[in-house]
């Protein structure tokens, strides 16, 4: 307890000035990081460096039991802190001692340690929990997708709440160990590399490790009966793909797409530099979803490859490994750093496959949307939470990059594409920081260009390749062969979670 001194006002003021900040009473960490789109996502007062998740899952009744161990560091003198979580918690310990805990709001777990944490203090937080993830809804939805033989956690921007407690914001990345016990004959797939698996008394435990910093929404858990393929890239990276055994007529198209993961990754390295992680792959569970997600090292794909193979989709999700995963958004309004670049990677892949050049796609995209279309009212550089996955973030976002390419030339443009993830890898960034980087590399002032394409509502007077709207209307560009498959990705991601 702090003793209170009663002294004259002037003396009191001087004493207060003399007291160091560390002498202040510990205070609770903020219940959110203050992201303008999702203010209560993430938490203040600490950082997580590692998650160790030891889970047991029963597909028959969708029951999940878990013990999560978080290695944290206090960023302030901390009396209480929050984790984002939605399942039932039975016990919490901080540095080995039982801690008080309570739920608040839809997904806040408030933890009061037996002893306040000092700024800079490392703490081990253990949370024991259980629940039925598919039955737990927050804000009217669940990010846990039940399947006939298991379940999958995959969504954006929130997925962790249904299977592990976390500091759920991209600015707090960590390494992961994910250990999952499932009935024999069932597999558990996660990110990174499979360290080991062992069967005991009718249960098989899979131990996965992700070494590189990883945002919480990029953590994957898929449980079911899978056919698993294993291979290596020419550079020796392990490639592990998993396909639900009940994909039916979509099985062939799914494999024809995802089995090219290693090839497409090596192709992307030519544009973005060395692949930033230690493993590759993809998972195609038989969910009732219609979107894909760039879960780190092992993207999640919905099963509906109804129109045959779609390698453009694979190129999009793999491009995110550099743009979105390795370099993440500082705030969710910076989503263009993810989607604009992944979409442009599809344009480059289209060009490589002879299905339409990036310039042809840019001209066609620009001409496809009339000036009075709502598409032009969305600002990719800050689209708003309701438009975070709007077509404009993808299409207008990619057009912004083609406009940049035409402005500064291929040499500087491709130097920027490769240099940015090398400079920022493992961290996060803002749109404005990317603009500053592009100006530094190119030596040109680019504020007006980016303001036009990312921050100004309305259709630009000229297209990204410099042709006027009137000229393009008079000589309408032909639809590139790749257009339909590219656009299907954008529509699917927009439906990811109902925001």
TrEMBL record:
Catalytic activity: Release of an N-terminal amino acid, Xaa-|-Yaa- from a peptide, amide or arylamide. Xaa is preferably Ala, but may be most amino acids including Pro (slow action). When a terminal hydrophobic residue is followed by a prolyl residue, the two may be released as an intact Xaa-Pro dipeptide
Cofactor: Zn(2+)
Stretches with biased composition (Basic residues): 481-499
Transmembrane segments: none
Pfam family, one: Peptidase_M1_N
Aminopeptidase N-like N-terminal domain: residues covered: 49-218
Entry EC number(s): 3.4.11.2
Superkingdom as given in the UniProt entry: Bacteria
Composition-biased stretches (Low complexity): 467-480
Keywords linked to the UniProt accession: Hydrolase, Metal-binding, Metalloprotease, Protease, Signal, Zinc
Residues of the Peptidase M1 membrane alanine aminopeptidase domain: 308-453
Residue span of region Disordered: 460-499
Signal peptide: 1-23
Alphabetized Gene3D superfamilies for the sequence: Neutral Protease Domain 2, tricorn interacting facor f3 domain
Coiled coil: none
Family: Belongs to the peptidase M1 family.
Name of this chain's protein: Aminopeptidase N
Biological source species: Streptomyces albiaxialis
